[in-house]
Amino acid sequence: MVPVGEVGNITLLADFLDCRVGALPLTYLGMPLGASYKAVSVWDPIIEKMERMLAGWKKLYLSKGGWKKLYLSKGGRLTLLKNMLSSLPTYFLSLFTIPVSVAHRIEKLQRNFLWGGMGDDFKHHLVGWHKVCTPKEKRGLGVRRLIPFNKALLGKWLWRFGLEEHKLWRRVLVAKYGVDLGGWRTSHIRSPYGCGVWKGIMLGWHDYFQHIEFVVGLGSRIRFWQDKWCGNMALMDRFPILYTCSSHREVTIDSVMLRPVAGGLCEWNVTFVCDFNDWEIEVVVEFFQLFPSKSPTNEGPDGLRWKLRKDGVFDSRSFYCALIDRPGRQFPWKDIWAVKAPPQVSFFIWTATWGRILTCDNLMRRGYKMINSLRSLLTPYLIGLGCGAYLQLLVLLILLFH
């Protein structure tokens, strides 16, 4: 039992119910309750769990003396990173906005593990992390970036808020913050106290709303001019002159649409405050010719359509791909990753496509001093050897490294 504020006789009540008295903050079903969502300490259990997992892998693959008992290749590291390390914070990311400092700390653990930082020795990070987190189709490894992945997971709540009108959690938010845009979102949150979790979720509204299209039913929740219901652009952006001259700019669709009787076409009662000039008539004609093909046939409630999927249903995967989308040439990734080759071989080839293999040239660029030739390397050891022995040693080296 957790009291909120001053509760009299809490001890007697706990004895009667045979339960303990707790206090906020606490952990319930793996989630922190009563703690500030901005606090870095909220994420400490996730980071500690990752560090324990890495310590277990280090114990498995490294002995106390530093000698490797088992070899963990880069391909194996990539598999563990994508399937285990990256999945640990998913539960928290689906509700809380991750602080930037925490995201950088977790990604540093992932980065060091991928490039071999399980021991105490230094390992080069051959390819930049932003390239590693690029999709495979665009020459990356497909590791998820935490901040956009967090925003993609939180977008699910924005989608559900617009559709689940009668759910208890939505009614609580509406009672606390009010609604805006026809009930598709809450009003702007300005209070600095008591609104942390939902305020963090609402930070992703702009990116989320770009991929939303309205499905007209009754038309009572969709604004005629401002919302995207008639194509990829709102009517106010497509016909700015007509929007400026409209009589009612905040009108909803049901206010200007006269539904047909016995299967006829809808009629539209859109009014303007002034007459149009001759050179504007063509725009007016285009405006009214647009509606016959967009007349709603559904008489149910208004809905949403997710433009990034053919079925129109929101999913975090498509939202994440849209958030990280950046210009780039297509890469023949199937020739590397979709072949019957060990993962470490595919990883090596991928690294080579970036020109990041630790060849002599790359080592010299990193500040290492390299010996110019094999002859200069062997000369100190070959003094006193005859010519025949020298040639035999060279042939042996060539055969070994052929």
From TrEMBL:
InterPro entries reported in the protein's UniProt record: RVT-Znf (IPR026960)
Record keywords, A-Z: Membrane, Transmembrane, Transmembrane helix
Domain Reverse transcriptase zinc-binding: 314-370
Transmembrane segments: 381-401
Protein name per the record: Reverse transcriptase zinc-binding domain-containing protein
Keyword Cell inner membrane applies: no
Record keyword Cytoplasm present: no
Any matching Pfam family: zf-RVT
Record lineage: Eukaryota, Viridiplantae, Streptophyta, Embryophyta, Tracheophyta
